[in-house]
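Section 5.1 Outputs to date
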Amino acid sequence: MAILLENATVVTLNRSKPVLVAQQILIHDGAIAQMGRKIDTRLPITKRMDCSEMIVMPGLVNAHSHLTEILQKSFRDNARMEIWRSFRTTTEDLAKLTAKEIGIAAELACSEMLKIGVTAVVDHFSTRPGLTVEKMEAILGAFEKTGIRGMLVPSLRDQDSIRLATQPTKRRNTAAQTEPWKEEVLSVLAHLRRARTHSGIMLGPSSPMNCSDALLREVVQFAEQYDLGIHTHLLETRLQAWTARKIYRKTICAHLTEIGFLSSRLSTAHSIWLDENEMDLLASSGASAVHNPASNLKLGSGIAPVAKLKAHGINVALGTDGGDTSDSYSIFEQIRLAAYLSRVVTENPNGWITALDALKMGTANGAQAVPAWRGKIGKIKPGYRADLLILKPSLRLRPLRDIVSQLVFCEGGQSVDTVLVDGKIVVESGRLTGVDEKALIRRVEPISKKMYRLYTRIKKKPDRSRQTAHELYKKSFRAKGLPARLLL
């Protein structure tokens, strides 16, 4: 199947010529075959699309998310991450979501993303209780049905970081109990190979502190054996930074370097409470950082030092986190916030994140953070897969003068008209082609209502873990030696 986009204004992301006009783009077998003012069109064209007065740009990449959290969208406010997580996990425990319900939730999150321009997503998938093939395949099924390019990242853990930090005498005496995961992951890998899908799988330690060194080494060995990427949370909150010092008696990145966990396979979500030496270690390993500005702001976690990360040579991508922290799965929103927030924490304007930098963070940098996507998506370039957005400029983009700046500072997804993933049209004239939106919403609403009833009961009951988190935060605020970050 060959598709020809004609008369397009194309966002290339190149510094010298970030925008090209009057371009033709030939898409063949899911890839960009040619691009230019005049191209060889001897191939039989299946579909011609006139893109006059339209903007064509690379699809957005959501490099860190939790899709099933859409069921608890905006349930909570005024709670730090550890307290928020306690509410979320307890609600999930009581809800006992089935694989079918998990699949429906993921389908809704993927549908939301596609309609606002996200063509690729990393789902750091945790499910309670227990990781099963059936539940993981429900996520893969949502990727396939909606047409999004998905990366399933099953969350792994075998210890509790707060318990280790507060009960050091038990630290070395507690045998690690890891849920079985290797056979499940191998089964899903086999499923993906049979299906020949454009989605994939990575390994996802919940956070290094919630995993024993033995489990982290096992993850690295498994990833190398099967050529998989690794994704984890890293130093999202001040409490985590304080806890890490208690557990390892050194910086967490120094410890992870010692056990061989840092590498170019790795992407680290949040990465707020890093010091300069840790940034050097991440940079030298080739690991990527994933900035989640909306989530970090809502939970009061702090502001990631994006300008410093960039100056150290670290690839910085963007993520939305979950539906109950960012409250949406919009990467356009994260792009704008990333640019704005760099101006709050960086004194010299020469170090601020520019509009072009921010747009790259939401596209090419996101692809770079995922080994399986490097050199394949995130740019409009011959040989790359055709993950593209066609925008019909809305009133928010008018008057239109500087396309890159206005995409960053004005656009919110309202201009998205057509979306292609791997050369297939998944949104056309603003409508999903593979999903019945109204029917999907009807299926989701009862599940979310059930969870909200459970949550309203839970939040009224006193909980010792939430009180412990409050007390530990007070200690962490008094602790010295942690990097200075805003929103304390």
